[in-house]
UniProtKB/TrEMBL annotation:
Entry keywords, A to Z: Cell membrane, Membrane, Transmembrane, Transmembrane helix
Chain ranges passing through the membrane: 12-30, 82-110, 142-163, 197-215
Location(s) in or outside the cell: Cell membrane
Keyword match Iron: no
GO CC terms: plasma membrane
Domain RDD, residue spans: 4-178
InterPro entries linked to this entry: Pra-immunoreactive (IPR051791), RDD (IPR010432)
Chief localization: membrane
Protein name stated in the entry: RDD family protein
Membrane topology classification: Multi-pass membrane protein
Protein's UniProt keywords contain Transmembrane helix: yes
Short name of any one Pfam family annotated for the protein: RDD
């Protein structure tokens, strides 16, 4: 009987797929991101110029700028500029998400509906997607499985985490689509060493990033406290 794939092995496979998908989607999203960067820089410059105008007017009138913050928050030019910046960021985020979604759909559906029954990442980790009966899933089931992953993202990945809690190692999208992720025929039960190194590298990068954020936060807090004293 085939063995269900464990959570960390599934995650290692997914993270490989995610890197490849991001690299493929970046050229598609790049023109939109480049245009958004130019629009953002122009909008930010316009906001800075408007703030300087308001500061100059306050100083000329002998007013304390700190007392004018509420009035400035109602300034139509500043409000319009902030809304424009928000629109630029939202548009860039949506365009990038659309590119990622399109590439991911082709990547996962084509792989899991193929004779491999796996995306390239799953294939590298010796995994395959099957029906509950252990058979190769059809195209519609694979498409449904991909779409069923959306609730897991909306639930902050809790749906994916089910694979680590359940005895049958099925995630939410597996439960919805009636699928399993199993070890492929001939795949070693133990995760390959290179995959464990790959997971370890991600852990190091994650904690290094968290540490960098904390150190910068503490440095900023210390500077504020020092200036206050």
């Amino acid at each position: 009987m085939a063995t269900p794939a464990g959570f960390w092995r599934r995650y290692a496979a997914y993270s490989l797929d995610a890197v490849a998908i991001a690299l493929l989607a970046l050229p598609l999203a790049w023109p939109r991101l480049k245009a958004a960067k130019l629009a953002y820089d122009a909008g930010l410059t316009a906001l800075q110029m408007r703030l300087w105008e308001l500061l100059d007017a306050a100083f000329r009138a002998g007013l304390d700028p700190g007392t004018q913050l509420l009035d400035w928050s109602r300034d139509p030019v500043l409000r319009a500029g902030l809304l424009d910046l928000a629109g630029v960021l939202a548009g860039a985020a949506l365009a990038t998400a659309a590119c990622l979604m399109a590439v991911a759909a082709l990547w996962f559906v084509a792989g899991e509906a193929s004779p491999w029954q796996a995306s390239p990442g799953k294939r590298a980790l010796g995994l395959k997607v099957t029906t509950l009966a252990g058979e190769r899933p059809g195209l519609l089931r694979v498409i449904g499985r991909f779409l069923a992953g959306l609730p897991s993202w909306l639930l902050l990945n809790l749906g994916h985490a089910l694979a680590g809690w359940r005895k049958d190692k099925r995630a939410l999208h597996d439960l919805i689509a009636g699928t399993r992720v199993m070890l492929a025929d001939g795949a070693p039960v133990r995760m390959p060493r290179w995959a464990r190194v790959w997971l370890g590298a991600q852990a190091v990068l994650f904690f290094a990033g968290v540490g960098w954020v904390l150190l910068n936060y503490l440095r900023l807090a210390w500077e504020v406290l020092r200036d206050a004293l």
